[in-house]
Amino acid sequence: MPEATISLDGHDEELAVFGSRDQYLRQVRDALGVKVLARHGEVRVEGEPERVAQARRVFEELRVLYRRKRAISAGEVAELIETAVRGESAGGPDSVTLLEGSRQVRARTDGQARYLRALRDHELVFCVGPAGTGKTYLAVAVAVAALRRGQIKKIVLVRPAVEAGEHLGFLPGDLEAKINPYLRPLLDALHDLMDCDQIRRYMGNDLIEIAPLAYMRGRTLNDAVIILDEGQNATVPQMKMFLTRMGQNARIVVTGDITQVDLPPEALSGLADAVDRLSDVPGVGVILLDKSDIVRHPLVQAIVNAYEGSEPARETGSGAGRRGDGQVTPDHPPPSGPAASG
């Protein structure tokens, strides 16, 4: 009979993975119909091959949660089981599934599946890619799901207040009215995931905050997911300031497209610089998406193809990043490489 063995490191990890009085072991056994044996610092699973693989994935995820010093509940174990079942049966780019209330938010490309895995496995994630690849949407979906499960207490959505090639002058209204045009894309992602009343309630209770990048200085954010959108328009000092806001049980996601930098020509993109500096730091994930990951209107991919290589080169920093296979890409990768296109 097929079996799998998961080794555990120490008594404390055993308690976290097994649950009180082996509660989580029984939960996995009953849900997946496998035989689970725990002894001498190991968990052995026996049963049908597909179910054994699903159980192994659940126990490995529980180990990850324990090592991040996260509290584990029966509800979270149930979600891990359901995610494992859906992931194993779907296969390919749908192997990572997020349950968002009654909705399902799934990866639609292999690149998006790598991105979702990075969001799950790392405390700091950089995602670089062209328009329409779901960089912001998936990050917001992961954050909303974590908030609803009680894993975090707050979502902070951040954007640099940089104009995209136009000078709008002085905008009318109060502070909220002035910054709203810059933050609108983040609100659009929220509105696609939650109803308007729920968004207002969450924002009114300070569970969701949307702010310009400049307002992050001097803060320490605990128990939160902090998402910086359009990170290519942050300068190097701004990026350093933003990344150092991370507190306890916090996760940071930075998204952007280093081919669409709206900073002055003499300014270096903080996103490209951060990818270069931090790509080899443990706990940091760097995902590069390309035009094959575009899931917006089909014309978007055609537009990206039409513009690719036709715009004058612009100095935006080294632009180095990490491919899905974990290798660092050079400043100007060859056309066949999986670098972000734009």
What descriptive keywords fit this protein?
11 helices; disordered C terminus; 6-stranded parallel β-sheet; 13 strands; single chain; 342 residues; 3-stranded antiparallel β-sheet; alpha/beta
User: Low-confidence runs (pLDDT<50, min 5 residues)?
Assistant: 88-102, 164-169, 313-342
- Strands side by side in the biggest sheet: 8-7-9-10-6-11
State the separation between the terminal residues, measured CA to CA: 50 Å
Tell me the total number of β-strands. Answer: 13
Order of helices and strands: EHHEEHHEEHEHEHHEEHEHEHEE
The chain-level structural class is: alpha/beta
Q: In one word, what is the shape?
A: globular
| Residue-averaged pLDDT | 78
Provide a short characterization of the protein structure.
It contains eleven helices and 13 strands.
